[in-house]
């Protein structure tokens, strides 16, 4: 098991200081590519997902041409939100304020009382588009129009690994949202195997392995418990390793996503998207559940029970503990939190957060991207 060089300290103020949080929003969530949606949410033509990210209303659509696009969810007339957060099917988006209408491709196709309104300026003929790509069944995008987030450099080849999970052809079978404390406290837990047999001893069990391998692709990490599946590979030639063994563990996408797989009468993927709230002490997580095949009523009922179980684990065990940590840090801002040599995932995460916050402009961001490398063996 690889270990860090030393114990790593993170000062409490990096979790609690509003000015620091503002920098994280500006230099991370408004700069790097984020997972704005998952392909199966947009599995059919003329489907959409609307969400709010870093204070920006976003609308993702799959148009009649099959292409996924992302826009600012705001009418070009007076700025009204076109559709509430959620997902569904629409060929047209009509503004609730004055009934201006847009196609699923973002084109302005209708203006109420057009002859009376007058001429439009040249760039008002459609919604404001923002950078967006679809990779490995996930929709990556920026929230800032006209700024290149450098998708390929940021992903560092990680999307090629994620492709093996088969999410592009998966079926969405359920979603649920969980409010939580500050985003970094929450995300620390997704990278942490150390706590599982203790905090989750009544749910996952006290015999769960709390040691692991942390493979990195730039800031993205695959966290693999050192359990019986890896012990079975001892002495087996690499070319004979089974794909399922290689794809096990928790796949995290910096700065806000984790992908886990559970057995529920077959593989059940849980994609957790974590977004900051309106300040440093709140966040919201959306859990999306996917299967490789369509499910019948019997399996769907099993999945719904598993969703209920996982909701309880995350909300009542993980996030409740994180709320207590947050309260402690707010009450004692002079202290630090510690990440041991065995907590490499958390160490790397905070090092990347610091590096991105220190990159004051896009030149600094691009320079940082040029340093990315992977620890995964070729």
Précis, in short:
By secondary structure, this protein is an alpha+beta fold. The protein has twelve helices and 20 strands.
Question: How would you portray this structure in words?
Answer:
This protein is an alpha+beta fold. The protein folds into 2 domains: 1-31 and 154-378, Alpha-Beta Complex (Naphthalene 1,2-dioxygenase Alpha Subunit, Chain A, domain 1); 34-149, Rieske [2Fe-2S] iron-sulphur domain (Rieske Iron-sulfur Protein, 3-layer Sandwich). The protein is built from 12 helices and 20 strands. The longest helix has 35 residues, at 297-331. The protein is globular, with a radius of gyration of 22 Å. The model has no long low-confidence stretch (mean pLDDT 91).
Which key features would you list for this structure?
alpha+beta; 2 domains; Naphthalene 1,2-dioxygenase Alpha Subunit, Chain A, domain 1; 29% helix; 20 strands; globular; five-stranded antiparallel sheet; seven-stranded antiparallel sheet; Rieske Iron-sulfur Protein; 378 residues
